[in-house]
Amino acid sequence: MNRAPRSPRAVMLAALLLNLIGFANYAAVLPEIRASTGLSEVQAGIAGGAFFLAYALGSPVFAGLTDTRDARRLCLLGAGLGIAGGLLFPLVDGSFAALVASRTLTGLGMAGTYMPGLRLLMESLPAEQQQKAAGDYVSTLTLGLSASVAVSGCLQWVFGWPAAFLGAAAAAALAGLLVRGSMPASRPSPQPSSLFARLLRVARGKDAWLVLLAAFGNSWEGMAFRTWWVALLGFAVALPGNEAYGAISLALVTAVVGPLAMPISAFVARRAEAGRRHRVIAGAAASAVLVGALLAAALAAPWPVVFLLSVAYACAIFSDAGALTPAMLVRVPVTERGAALALVSAASNLAAFTSTIMFGLILHAAGGAGSMNAWRLAILAITAGSVLTAGTMLLLDRRMGRP
């Protein structure tokens, strides 16, 4: 029998960071993949969206199963799927179909590790520490995305872009070993109702649909921007006057957002817990709309200005991410947390799937990835996500009134 770890929080945050290496490795090397394989903007969007669609479809299953199955075993299964996704492309096959299959497997792997990992963490802590741990775990997503881009960028720089996929497979294997060797098995309670019945019961809860809309809006903007960010900076570098910045590793410089965004997200989550939760989230979402509009307007500015604005935009987008999941968890009993996590994850990743493909479609329809107006239109289209988040949170704040 495994012993309870001295610090389950440290173990599960480390496992999450390792599993997230495969999250944004595709985005980190997207320009190199397109140059090597000739992917169109639409194909690039489809491959990026495949990850989020698989994540969206797998999340309700994996997260819901944590109510009745051992969360640790689910994490190990997810790690195995992540390993398969990293090895398939380009080690086995370098075709577009293999790329889509690879991102699908990686998405399923994330579904099997992210929410079950959160459930495993919360079950290993006293009740008074669980909400804070949930906020920290969700906030770590921004750091993990940056780690994914940084590690993938380094591997691409030294060994070529295929190494970014193989590195993700190795990281998933390490995460599985860490969870297997350090975390005890969870003890789910028998459930008298089916997963579908629990999902429906949570969805019908008071104002739950508004929280799900807010999560949809946050991910609509955040995941589309994260997927296309490196390509956007590549477009800006190619503009006249920015030649001096052509040697910069774009994947590596975008990794700076993690260390910046994570404490911001954790701060917003704690402010949300301490005060008017929904108004705090609405303010964070509104800041993303403003910075996104400013970035779209300033794309013709010198590259350092565009880069700094893009970093500020990413930080603003993810500032409310750590507060949205707890906003759903406080609405449900402990026995239905898995179903609540499943719905939040499904809403978030359906948004990411749609917006990532939509971004590529807008680029293609408005003149291609070399058109300034196309990039501006695509950025403005994804800012609609934070408009939705801010609006739903303000509505919730008005409904609930002052505490």
TrEMBL record:
Any single Gene Ontology cellular-component annotation: plasma membrane
Localization in the cell: Cell membrane
**InterPro entries in the record:** MFS, MFS_dom, MFS_Efflux_Transporters, MFS_trans_sf
Please give, as recorded in its UniProt entry, the membrane topology of this protein: Multi-pass membrane protein
- From what superkingdom does this record's organism come? Bacteria
Transmembrane regions listed in the UniProt entry? 12-30, 42-62, 74-92, 159-179, 208-238, 244-268, 280-301, 307-329, 341-363, 375-396
A Pfam family of this chain: MFS_1
Q: Name one GO molecular function term.
A: transmembrane transporter activity
Keyword flag Lipoprotein: no
Domain Major facilitator superfamily (MFS) profile, by residue range, is 8-401
What does the record list as coiled-coil region(s)? none
The UniProt keyword set, sorted, is: Cell membrane, Membrane, Transmembrane, Transmembrane helix
Annotated protein name in UniProt? Major facilitator superfamily (MFS) profile domain-containing protein
Q: What does the record give as the organism's lineage?
A: Bacteria, Pseudomonadati, Pseudomonadota, Alphaproteobacteria, Acetobacterales
